[in-house]
Amino acid sequence: MKKSEYGVNYILHLNEAFYKISQDDYLNPTHVSLYFSLFYCWNIRRFQNPFIIQRDEIMCLSKVKSKSTYHRCIKDLEVSGYILYLPSKNAMTGSRIKMLSLSPVGSPNFGYANPNNELQSVHQRPKIELPIEPLYKHINLNKHINVVSAENEFSAKHKKEKNEVKKTSSTSSKFIPPSLEEISTYFREKSRDEIEAQKFFNHFESNGWKIGGRSPMKKWTAAANNWILNADKFNPKPKNQSNLHINQDKDYDIPL
After folding, report:
1. What is the distance of C-alpha 148 from the center of its chain?
2. Which of 62, 82, 140, 182 could pair covalently with 178 via S-S, beta carbons 3.0-4.6 A apart?
3. Backbone dihedral angles phi then psi of residue 224, each to the nearest 5 degrees
4. Which domains does the chain have, with CATH numbers?
């Protein structure tokens, strides 16, 4: 990999950072997260050294919630030889960070790049000019766009499925008038004669198969059951005559 205009080799520096951190028992996960967040911002600035940082941006990237923890870890990284912290007294200009070389002095990798290293042959990373604005603003903006897009896609899909279900249910629930043969068969199963089946058919055929003359019928078998129940009410069976055979010429002198 070719070195940058500021003499920094991306991969070599990361390798040295991983090795140094693995050997450093003093650092905790917060230090590591903070350091690689700084490295990320350094990379965005094309390895300009030192570079201006914004505290809120670094805290957002490293997931550090406390300002006191942020400043403590920054100072710890400076004492451990990872960075050089250049605070600013002017809130408008911002503080600066200088990323230090992690290669041992005198090693072939000292100064971030080794001219004879095989990594020099890797494709050169494209130079992309990026704004110096806080990154989390862009991240939040993209996240918002992605969420809104996903919600719109889900809403459209849900609406389409709902319309299909509604269309299918309306088609499947459409009432089809029965034939006289079907009604006669059903009435015979209920032990009813052909005349009652004919009455039922003629009545609903004449009013367009509507319940009470207004509501469209949905299930004719239920209407047939009601018809049979009402027929029992309006056509009561004749009362059975008494089984007692009274003899008008009964002789009361004869004992029972």
Report:
1. 12
2. 182
3. -65, -40
4. 10-114 (1.10.10), 180-234 (no CATH)
For residues 176-212, b (16+ Cβ closer than 10 Å) or e, as one string? eebeeeebbebbeeeebeeebbeebbeebeeeebeee
Q: What is the pLDDT of residues 215-240, one digit of tens each?
A: 888 888 988 888 888 877 666 555 55
pLDDT digits (tens, 9 = 90+) for 135-188: 444 445 454 555 556 666 667 776 777 777 666 555 556 788 889 899 899 999
Residue 59: pLDDT band with limits 50, 70, 90? very high
Are the C-beta atoms of residues 1 and 125 closer than 8 Å to each other? Answer: yes
Question: Which residues sit opposite 98 in a β-bridge?
Answer: 84
The overall pTM is greater than 0.70: no
**Of residues 56, 49, 140, the one with CA closest to residue 96:** 49
> Residue 148: what pLDDT?
55
